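Following up on my earlier message about nicotinamide-adenine-dinucleotide. Here are the inputs again, as you asked, copied directly from the submission form:
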Amino acid sequence: MQLQGKTIVVTGVSSGIGSEVVRLARFAGARVIGIDRNDPSLSLDGFVKADLSTPAAIDAAVAQLPERVDALCNIAGVPGTAPAKLVGEVNYLGLRHLTERVLPRIARGGAIVNVASILGAEWPQRVNEHKALAQAKGFEAGAHWLRDHPVPQATCYQYFKEALIVWSTVQSQEWFLQHGVRMNCVAPGPVFTPILGDFVAMLGEDRVQADAHRMLRPAFADEIAPVIAWLCSDASRWVSGANVPVDGGLASTYL
Ligand SMILES: NC(=O)c1ccc[n+]([C@@H]2O[C@H](COP(=O)([O-])OP(=O)(O)OC[C@H]3O[C@@H](n4cnc5c(N)ncnc54)[C@H](O)[C@@H]3O)[C@@H](O)[C@H]2O)c1
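Thanks, got it. Here's what our run produced:
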């Protein structure tokens, strides 16, 4: 896979899937600028330390990015063991805000990749709600909509991953037509990263056991990263508005 000469901004670089994307993208020739609230422990071509849960911090981070980038990978995220408000801010509202702010810097032919989850697979059950939230444009309008439509703590992670898939899908075509920038989601199943234990706590033993019998094992982060990198590359130049499961076939067993 060729990423030679591309400048890629990656969030969540200091752990898990984000770290693997950095390694792979740099190996494939990209210049990678990372953003995370924690310091990274691997080589990068640039790093911005930022908390991606507030618009002010996001705007300050964007001001430090290169004027022109080829791709943005939104990988930073928190599990549903965090307070629902924070899950919404990091996994959805902040991601949306960052993407809207970076879009003017993304060159034609560029790409945006959002890391969703297999836990967002039930978006069709709430599609109208998620479309209404997608229509509440901007961080503040989105936060206001969420105050009027509170999300239960127990399912907040699933809700915001569903919302991310719906927003990405409905927004992607406009940006592809107007800016020539593609936007796609990747939906991993369980992955061996530091937050896997949080997902077990969040879902409960019964659901975890049920899923365990439907798959060989959780993924390693280096099995997710190549799909994200491919979606940044010119090889996927006609792929836009897709949500690509990378889950060892787990989602297919829900049919
Ligand atoms: N691990 C899994 O089983 C799994 C499954 C499906 C989807 N995902 C998604 O993959 C993405 C990456 O998760 P991971 O498993 O690599 O987790 P991780 O905890 O290893 O990495 C997440 C990174 O995001 C950063 N981050 C969190 N909140 C932030 C904030 N407010 N500002 C800036 N950075 C912040 C963390 O510092 C960390 O470096 C997340 O969006 C997660 O929801 C993970």
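One observation from looking it over: The two ends are 32 Å apart (CA to CA). Hope that helps, and feel free to reply on this thread.
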